[in-house]
Specification:
The structure is a single chain. With about 110 residues, the protein is α/β, with parallel strands linked by helices. It has a single domain, classed as Transcription Regulator spoIIAA (2-Layer Sandwich). It contains four helices and four strands, in the order E-E-H-E-H-E-H-H. A four-stranded mixed sheet has the order 1-2-3-4, with helices on one face. Helix 1 runs parallel beside helix 2. It is globular.
Length: about 110
């Protein structure tokens, strides 16, 4: 953990919501992140994109949230993408084996 304060900003254009993550997504930030995502994730009419460009760290709690979102959006047959994954985060996704599930389907 780098100690970078977690921050979330959202952009919405009609049926598209982009959530920008910044800092460290860890146990301390998990509750805030879940609360923010819940209404978006539970609306299958919205296309959801997570932009990780400024994410500096993610722990198992954060990865668990991403997996939960992925499963729910799949059940809803709703759009979910993760973009701009930093190299160190991508490496962790690769090591844990979740990369193949987070890749947008063509």
């Amino acid at each position: 953990m780098n100690g970078n304060k977690f921050k979330v900003t959202t952009q919405q254009d009609e049926h598209q919501v982009t959530v920008h993550l910044q800092g460290d997504l860890d146990l301390a930030a998990a509750g805030e992140f879940r609360s923010l995502l819940e209404p978006i994730v539970n609306d299958p009419a919205l296309d959801l994109t997570l932009d990780l460009q400024e994410l500096t760290y993610i722990d198992s709690t954060g990865i668990g949230i991403l997996i939960s979102v992925l499963k729910l959006r799949k059940e809803q047959q709703a759009q979910f993408r993760i973009v701009h994954v930093p190299q160190q985060i991508q490496k962790l996704f690769d090591m844990t084996g979740i990369s193949k599930f987070l890749t947008p389907n063509a």
